[in-house]
């Protein structure tokens, strides 16, 4: 390893400063949206603000003694985005509405779970032991919405929710983490085999057919999600996640070629066979025709009108009419923020995402075990891809899908999943940036690690 | 492996580059297309319920947005003296759009104009309620009220009062008028019903471009003789001492028609006339003979220099008609009739006032101005149009000569009832025959003649000769007195 820095630095004070800035952004936005209704500084505001601040600072405190070398930028970005989302959801609440408070409750729960991940998971490599449990969990999570009695049935054309008491929960959000853990565990164990065997066709080395098993599995999972849950976005997300992880594991571009070919092939067949996919694509291409507007594209078009209305500098928080857009606080929250904060504000938000996943990739580069590399890279790419699918859908770059906007959109499952990702990335970055830990993992049962990780440099492609 | 991680990062950044591009397209590059898309109701809805800037006359709003406390639509556009100012403000309606200054100054009133960019940036950071700029008019509320009251209810007519030296419009009134509150209501059912009633009222055209002082095109009658006079003096063929032929009737070769002088006046007493006499008594044949002598183009050029059929400059803001100036392809009887402001000559009351003001101002025609100041929501002046000369209508010498003759029209001629004790008033009347025994009766003039402060143009439409005489010159006197005594 060619580490330049001699002594690892915790940088916890940097994190604290950035965290205070993030809280100022989130709480300041929440104050602004209440100014007109004269509830800018009422007791609710102070109560909500202090809860958010306490949770963020508690997280920071836990990092100080549990993962003091963790990346100092990840947590502040997540808090800033979450705070902005809370403010916008609060702003869009009709009088007497409770979505804002509900989102705050979920935020606190999600942060608590994330703190627990950091607190109890002393080393991310332990997750490798759960490779196949993760696979089973993923399957369970993905099947749950389809099971009568547990599943919440078809909502808005997709079958991705389950009932938890009076609330609904989207298990697919959590499945992207369990799938990433499974892929990371499986690929880090089998990459040598996949790497060495294979046949060279032209400049590219293609894998043996029997090594294609996991790829086929992932593809089937994605198609299954598309067919049975009617969820185009998640389908894309899972498949993209797997392509990236297998590419990183093998450094072979051939996997990407095969993967993209499968996506295009699957997408083409799906568009021929399934009417809901056809409708999506037709509605996307002809969104501005009045017929399509009335029967489906209204949401996207109203969002575009809102963003156009915001223009360069935006209307100002609470000054626009994002309430004219259906699902303004969830699927379309990017359009709401674009309208009121303008191009400048939305660019800032997208840049926050960019920094967030970049820090995740940085952790992947820095950590020394291939499982951690794969997991950090997969999770970071998943967040980036999710942002692309959501924001691309809202801006009509691609067809709109039902994926949630990480940290911003109203919805508990999405918050929970993304805060768990924050916890995992923090742990991996702690390992990446900290002093080299040479102590082997404590032995643990049958699913123990399959051996000491090979140093990364040794497998790096020439 | 690290190389592949870097490549994955590049792929993710590439996706984000697409996102940045898509956002830029939606919010900036293609934003105007989206805003004008027929499916987009936002612009109207948003402006409609926002705190739009006020239109202010003499420190008091005549159109303002009132906070209704409603959650769904916070502000209601309200007109304080609706009929008095309807011709200027127009209306601001959800379904019928905007007219008048509401339309012409729409971007400023809504706060969308470029001049308000910094205010919008400020609102972004402070989270203030967006407000539009307020528009303060040059109108004098007392003169406006007086002018409006001088047109009897049921009478169709217009009055324009302005300052000839600056072009500032002090009053611009017309009847019949209407109540813009009726179509600005937030109740869509009432809005539609009221509109249906309004369009049935005879004489009301809610489009500011074709009615009222700035929009209605009328035959000017004898006030057009001022154009002939200016053209004659400018040609060099005539001077202040010229003797003009003044037959009782002007015959034309080959046709029966003869152009007469007005039978009821004093023109018949002389076969020839000086300019002073011809203007004082408003004899027709002397001016018809000037036009036949100089030719159509000389009259048309002078009409153009006075602004007939021409641009009024960009300071008026209000929608306005221009007319076609002096007609083309005229035979001799047609030229003779056109020279006395009959046949197809059509002008707006504002244009007659602009001609009068040009004479009053030594031949320099000022751009008519209706907006005095434009103020940002924090009352900072962001625009204050300066008096601007629109064109040179005639020479100072000619203007001075015409002024002298117009003064004699009031002292010795047929506009005696416009005289104000102690003040020299210059004036000219006009009676354009409509062919049904009724006339459009005009007065246009200014005072004081030696140092003009106000020019007044009055037209009463469809009146007989007695009512016309009663409603024009005597009313001009009242307006002169009101302005000069301020």
UniProtKB/TrEMBL annotation, chain B:
One of its GO terms (molecular function) is glycosyltransferase activity. Residues 157-481 form the Penicillin-binding protein transpeptidase domain. It comes from the Bacteria. Residues 52-135 form the Penicillin binding protein A dimerisation domain. The keyword Transferase applies. Keywords: Glycosyltransferase, Transferase. Its EC number is 2.4.1.129. The keyword ATP-binding does not apply. This is Peptidoglycan glycosyltransferase. It comes from Pseudarthrobacter enclensis.
